[in-house]
Fold each of these.
Amino acid sequence: MFSSFLTRALCQNSAPTTPDTQHEVPIQMGLVKSLVAGRTIAAASATAGKTEEGDSCTFGSPHYFALCGMGGILSCGITHTAIVPLDLVKCRIQVDPDKYRNVFHGFKVTLKEDGFRGLAKGWAPTFFGYSMQGLCKFGLYEVFKVFYTDLIGEENAFLFRTSLYLVASASAEFFADIALSPMEAAKVKIQTTPGYANTLRVAMPKMYAEEGVYSFYKSLVPLWMRQIPYTMMKFACFERTVELLYKFVVPKPRSECSKSEQLVVTFAAGYIAGVFCAIVSHPADTVVSKLNQEKGSTALEAAKKLGMAGLWKGLMPRIVMIGTLTALQWFIYDAFKVAMRMPRPPPPEMPESLKKRLQAEGKL
C-alpha cells in the first residue's frame, strides 16, 4: 500500500498544465470556483508564466494530495522523533509528579536511573505513529479544505475561511488519530511504566496479550479530545497568522519575497500557532498519559485522579515542545513543497464577484 502511494506521489503529472489549458483539466473544474483554487489562479495570475510553469503537479490533483501526504510524513515523523527525550520527561511528570517534580529534575532522575539511552525510550512507536498521523493530518487537510470549499462556494469560503480551516483540520485529524492510537498507546506504556518493555516489538505483543485490541484504542477518545482541538488551532491559527504577518509585519508583498523569506514567515507563524495548540490540548494530553499508564482505567477515572491542578502538570515543557515542534513541522512541510516544486497558494484574497457585490451595496 505504501509503496504504491510512494510511486504515485513521485511520478510526474502526465497532463501538464499551462495557463491556456488549466481550466480544461477535469479535476480542476470544480476547484476553479473554490477559495483555494481561486487563490492560486487569481492571486498568482500575474506571475503564472514565471511560477506555474515550473510546478511539478496540478493543484488539487491526486498527485498534489499524495505529495502533501508525503510532506506530512516527513514533517511529523522527524520532528516528534527528535524531541522524544523531552516528551518522555513530560509524560513522566504527568503520571508521577511526586517523583518527577519539574523538567530539569525529570531529566536528572531519568539519566540517573536509565542513563542517556533511557532518554530515547519510545522512539520507534513515536516515529511510526506520528509518520502515519502526519500522512493523514496534512494530506487529508488539503483534501477536506478543497472539498468543503466546493460545497459552500467561493464567496462563503472567503468570508468564513476561519471556520473552513477549523472544520477541514478537525475532519483530517479524526482519521489521523485512528492511525496514531496504537503506536501512541505503546509509546506511553514504554515511557511511563518501569520495567514493562524497552522496545516496540516487546511492548505490542504484551499489550495485546493483556487487553487485546482494546489496549491500542482505549485512549482513542481522549486522543481525539487532545488532538482535534490541537489540530484545529494548529491549522486555523497558522493560516490566519500567515495572512496577518504578510498584511501587517512583512514590509513587502508575498510575491516579492524570496523562498527563504517566505519560509521564515512560515516558521514564525508555526511557532505562534504552536503555543496556542499546547494550551488548548494539554488537559486531554495529561489524561492520555495517565490512561495508557494504568490498566483498566477510564478517561473519567483518570481525570478525577489527577484533579484540576494535575491536569495542567507539565504545561510549560509542553509549550516549549509543541511551539518548537509546530514551527518545525510547518517549516519542513513548506520546505518540502518548495523542494518538490508544488503549487503554494498565497494568502486568500477577496473574490472579484464578492468585491463587485459589496461595492454595489455600498459596503466596500
Amino acid sequence: MLFWLPLISFVLIVIIVKVYLQLTSGICRSNAHMVGKVVIITGGSSGIGLETAKNLAERGAKVIIACRSVRRAAKAIEEIIKQTGNTNVHHRQLDLASLKSVRRFCSNIYNTEKRLDVLINNAAAGGLGSGKTEDGLHKGMQVNYFGPFLLTCLLVPLLKSSAPSRIINVSSSMHKYGEMDFENLNMERYWSDHLVYANSKLFLNLMTLELSRRLRGINVTANCLHPGVTATTVYKNIKNSVIREIVNTLVNFLNKDLWQASQTCVYLAVSPEVANISGRYFSDCREKKPSLLSQDLELAKRLWIESENLVDYKLPIE
C-alpha cells in the first residue's frame, strides 16, 4: 500500500490542478469589432496564434500571419477563411532565427501596409539546443526574444503613425525561473533548454516594461501575458523522446484548450478596458503580478541597451 501512496498523491495533485485551471480560465467578453484594423501575429499558423487569428479575423480585422512555413500558413489561412468568412487574411514569410529575414519582413510591411494597429509577438519554441544562428546568437534566444525585439523596434514607427495601437508579447509563467546574468544573455557561459525558455520569457517581460516607458504618451501600449498551460507545439523540438512524451502527456491533460488559451491575447488586442494600460502582465484576462525581476525598471533599461547592441539596431528616440 505504501508503494502506491506517492503515485496516488501525484494523481490527486494533477486532478486538483486541472480543476483549478478550468474554473479560473478567463474569457474575453468584449464584442469590439476590428473592421479597418491591421493585425500582425507571429506564429499565427498553429496553436494559440491560429486561434487568436481566427478570433480577430471574425471581428473583421485584416490579419497578417507571420511565420516561416508557407505550407502551414496556407493551410491556416484556408481554415480561418472557412471558419470566419473573412478573406482579408494573408501570409508574410518570417524566420525569427534570421535577423535578415526580420528586416526583410518589416521592409515588406512598410511597402504594403499603410497602418498597423496590433502587433502580437506570439511565436516561440523550446528544445532548440545550443546552436547559434547566422547572426551569432543562441537560436532559442533569438527565436523567442532577440528576433521579436528587432521586429518590434522596426515596426514601432508604423505603430506610432497608426495610434492608438497595441503591442502584445506572449510570455509565460516560466519567466519566474529565468535568471538575469548580463554576462550570459546569449547563453555562451552556461545553458539548458529550460533556462533558455525561461530567460527568453523574462526578457520579453522586461522588454515590455521598457517599451511602455519609451512609448509613454503617444497612445501605443505594450503589454505581456501568460496564456496558461495549453496543448501547444512549443515542446515539439525536445529531442529526448521519453521526456517529450512525458511533457506532452502532462501538458495535454492539464491544458486549457487552444480557444481558452487565446482569450487573454484577444482581450489585450480588442478590449477597451485596457486601451490605456501599458507595461503590465496579464493572465486569464486579468492583470497579474509577474516576478520581481520582471518589474525592475533599471534591469529593463539595461537589457534594452544590450539587446540593441546584439541585434545592431537602435530605436530612434523622438
Amino acid sequence: METMISMLVLLIMTEGSGSSSFPVTFENQDPCAVKGSSVEFRCSYSYKDGETVRKTAWYKGKLIDGIWKRVLLSHLPSYENRTEYLGDQQHDCSLAIHDLQDNDTGYYYFRFDTDTYGWRSKNSVYLSVTELMANVYPERVRAGDNVTLECEASCQLSGTVWFRDGHPVAKPEFSAQAEDSGNYLCAVQGQESVHSEPVALDVQYPPFNVSIEVSHPGRLAEGSSVNLTCTNAANPAADSYTWSWGYVSSSSSMLQVGSGQVLSLLSVEASHTGLYLCQAKNSVGENNSTEVLLTVYQTDIWNNRFILLICIGVKVVTVLLLPLVIVWAWRKRHNSAVDEKDEDSHDYENISHIQMGKTSNNKKTKQDYT
C-alpha cells in the first residue's frame, strides 16, 4: 500500500514538473469573437528530446453535477463539424472554431500524449462570444453637427470597421453632411460578413438646389396656361413655398404672387411677363431659386405682323416674277406675229397657182371650140 502511494506521489510530481518544464503556451488566453464568426486559438507546446507525440486533443471545461470536468470537444455534439485542428504532432497545437454560438463561451484546454507520458495544460484559454451593437450619437443631427459611431460588444475586440448602406466609412467621427444620411453597421475587421444590426442616421438640412421647372418653356401666347414648379432637395421635405414676381428692369423689388409648390397661371396676359422666383422652406432653414424669365406676347399683334409679312412676301414675289411674265408675253406675241406673216405668204402663192391654172384651162376650152 505504501509502495502504491509513493508511486502515485512520484507520478504527480513528475507530471507537474513536466508540465512546468515543458509548458503549453497560448498566444492569447482571453480571445473575444463575434457570434457567427470564427476564432483561432494560437498555441504551441514542447516536450523532452527523444519523445514522440502520439496523440493531441482539445477539451472544454464543464461543470457536471457540481464537479468541474474536462470534456473532449469530439464528444460534444454541439461542436460537430465546427472545430478544425490547425496544429501538428510536433509543436503547433492551434485550434479554430467556426460559426460561434453563445454557448461556446468558456474555458478550453489542450493535451498531448507521447510514448511515455500524457501532458496537459494547466493554464487555459477563456473564449468570450459576443454580439455587436452599432450606436450612432446622436441619431438625428443637422448638417454640420458632429457624429460619433460606436461599436458595442461585451468583450474587447481587436478592431472594428463601419459601413453606410454597404459603403465603407473612413472615420467613426465626422461632421455630418446631407449625403451622410443612411443605415450604419459595424463589423470586426477581416470578418465583415458578420456584422451588427443597422442603425439609422438622420441628417437634416434646409432646401438646396432650389430651381423652377416651367411646363411650357419659351414664349407664351395670351390666353394659354402654364405651371411653374419649385423643385428642391431637403430633409425634412420643404413644407412652405413662396412665389415672387418682378419686372425685368427692377428684379430687386419683387412682389409676392402666390404660395404652394406649384404656381398655376391658367390664362396668361401680357402683364404676366417678368421674372419669377420661388422660396422653399422647412424647419431647418430656407433657400431661394434663381430667377426665371416668363414672356407673354399679344396674339393680335403677332397676327398682324404675320399678315404683314405675308403681304411683303407677296409683293416681293410679284416684283421678282413680273419682269419674267412681261418677257414671256412679249416673246409669245412676237412669235405669233411671225407665224401670221408666214401664213400670209403661203396663201399668196396658193392663189397665184390657182389663177395660173384657171388661165390654162380657159385656153384649152377656146381651142376645143375652134
Amino acid sequence: MHSLNIFSKSKIVWESGLSFSRLVTNGIGKQIYRGYAKRDDDGCRRACVDIPPDVDPVCPQPCERHKKKKEGILHKIKLKIIEGGTNFGTPFRRLQCKEKVCKEMEVPKAKALPAPAKKVLSLPPPRPGVQVSILGANTNLGQYIALLLKQCSCIKKLRLYEAADTQCTNCSRNLCEVVEDLRHIDTNCVVQAYSYARNELERCLQNSNIVLMLDSACLNMNMSLENRFNYQAPIVKRYADVIAKECPDAFIIVCTSPIDCMVPLIAETLKETGWYNPRKLLGSLAVPEMRASTLAARALCLEPCYVHVPCVGGTEGSSLVPLFSKALEYFDFSEQNTDLMTQTVRRAPITVGRCDGQCIKSAELSEAHALAGLVTKVAWALLCKDIPRVSGFVEIDASEVISPARFIANPVEINGRGIVKSLGIPKMKDLEIRLMDLALNELFVKQEMVQNWYCKYCSSSGSLDAYQVQFFTPKTLERFEDCAYATL
C-alpha cells in the first residue's frame, strides 16, 4: 500500500516537471506551436486555416464584402484590424459573410420577333426613249424599217404615216393591217398609224424627235433626175412646212430620192419659216456605204464588220464617191479595181431594180437594214448614250471646204444636240480626187435646179398660221425646244 502511494506521487512529480520544462522552453526559445483539430469524418490532422469552408448548397458562389470606400488612413487601418493580417490580429482568422439566400434567376421570356415589313417595290424609272415618225411607211421599205425599229429599245413610240398614193403598187399591204401585225411583237415600242386621207400629218409629226422621209410608192429608179425631183418636191415641201409647225426641233433624216436635191429644198423651206437648224438635217448615205463596205470586204476576203468605206460628194449617180482607199488600213486597191468597184456601187440601185420586174422598186430588205441602223444610231446619240460617226449629206462651212456646192456628203459626229462636228473630206488618192471634182460640179448644178424651182413655185410665208406670223420672227438657228403651239 505504501509502495503504491510512492509510485503515484513520483508519477505526478515527473508529469509536473515535464510540463514545467515545456513552459520554460516556450518562454525561452519563443517557439510557437500550431494547434490542430481533428474532424469527425476523417482522421487527417490539418490546420484550421487549411480547412476549406463548407460549400453553401443554396449559394455555391463565394460571397464578397461590400466595401464602402472612404478617404482617410484611419479607416484603412480599421479595415486591416477587422480583416486581419500580419501586423494586426492573427493570420489564421477566418472571416465569413452572413448567409445569403440567392434568388432564382428569372429567365426572360423570348419575345416574338415583329413581323417583317413588306418592302413596297417602287416602280422603275421610265426608260428614256425617242419618238420616231416615218413618212411614207405604206411602202414595203417603210414596213420593213418599222419591223426593225419596233425591236429597238431606245424608241418608245413609232408613228407610221401613209402617203397619198397608196394604190400604185401591188406589193404593199394596207398600213392599218401592218400596224396591227406589229403590235403583237413583245416590245415596249408603241406603233400607231396615220393616213393622208384623214389629214393626220400634223398629228403624226407632233412632238416627234426623229423624222424619217422615205420615197413614194410610185417612184421608179429608171426615171430621170428632173422627173423624180418634180414628182417628190411638192410632197417633201409639204412635209417640211408641217415639221416647222409641229416638231421644229426634230432630227430630220432624208431618204427621199434624189437626196442631193431634197436636202437643199428642206433647208430653204425651214429657213423661210425661221426653224432651220443645220445640226438637225441629214441626208442618208447608209445604203451606198453598206454596199461599198460589203463589196470591199468580199474583195479582201474579210468579214464586213472589219471593213468600212466612207462615201463623200453626193448620194447617188456620178456624184457618189466611195473612198475605197480608206477601207482597210495599210492597204490600197489598184486604180483599176477602185474604178470598177466605184461604178458597181453607183449602178447598184438600177441593177437590183432590174432583177425583179414585178415591183417598181426592189432591194427593200437591204435598204431597210441600212436605214434602220442609221435611225438607231441617231436615236442613241440624241439620248446622249453614244457619239456615232456616220456619213451624211449636210451643209458645210465655207471656211472648211472650198466648193461651189453648199451641201456635201462627208463623215460627221452626232450627239444629243445633233451634228456637232463635220470631219470634212479626208485625204484621197488621185483617182478619187478626179471623181470628187466631177461630183462637186454635178452637185452645184443640182442645187441650182432646186433653187430655181423653189423661187418659181414655192413661198412658205403664205402657208404659215397667224400665230406664227404674229409671235415668231424668222431667225436662223434660234428655236423653241418643242412644238410651236406649246406656248400659245
